[in-house]
Each structure stands twice: as structure tokens, then as C-alpha cells.
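Why does residue order matter? Because the sequence determines the fold. Keep that principle in mind as you read this record.
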Amino acid sequence: MKERLFKPLHWIMLIIISLHFIDQTYRITYGYFSSQGVQPPVGDFNVQLSTLDFIVGIVFQLAIAYTIYMLYSMKRSGGYYLVGLNILLVIYGFVIGSFSTLPAGELLPLILSSMVFLIILVIGIPYLYSDKYE
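Structure:
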């Protein structure tokens, strides 16, 4: 049963993180170029991006795209890099970036829940099938 579930779980993982990547990239680029800001999935506020925030966001998105490729190539380290990059992006957003002006109480539950889901997805599945991943 475990062997039969590998391919569906692997592809579900790749599809979910790819959709998350597309959503983040769209929010960053549309939010910057439309000057309306980035609206989180929950909450009634917009995050206004500076040029530095946009450049850092795009660099992080390129690195995240590579980690998705690593997971596609069956490399377990891609999941660790993906989680690490997302943590660094959140730290950047709260320390230097545009999240520093927003109420952390509204953002932290969303960020923590998505991080837990991401950890279960990109670290849990490769760990469960450690014989398949490098």
C-alpha cells in the first residue's frame, strides 16, 4: 500500500508547492507593479512593497523554483532548502521588509499554519519515502 501511494503523494506535493510558488510570484509581481500592494489570503490590509522588497522577493522565488526542481529530481535536500528559504523570507519581511509595519498578531497564525503544512508536505513525504529520495 505504501509503495502504491508514492507516486500520487509525490505529484500532489509537487502540484501544491508549484501552485503556492505561482501564487506567491503573482502576488509579489502584481502587488508591486499595480501599486495596490500584496493582500494576504486573510485579513483586510495590503502590504506595500518597496523596490528592495520586490527584488528580494524575486530572488527568493527563483531560489524556491530551484528547490521545487530538486524535489522533482527526488532530492530530499530540496525540502529542507524550501522550508529554510520560506523562513528566511518571513524573517526578512518582519525585520527589514514591509511586514514590520503590520500587526504581527494577524499575520503570525497564517504564517505558522502555512509553515507547518509546508514542513509536513516537503519534509514529511520525502522522509516517509526516504528510500526513494537521495
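The two ends are 22 Å apart (CA to CA).
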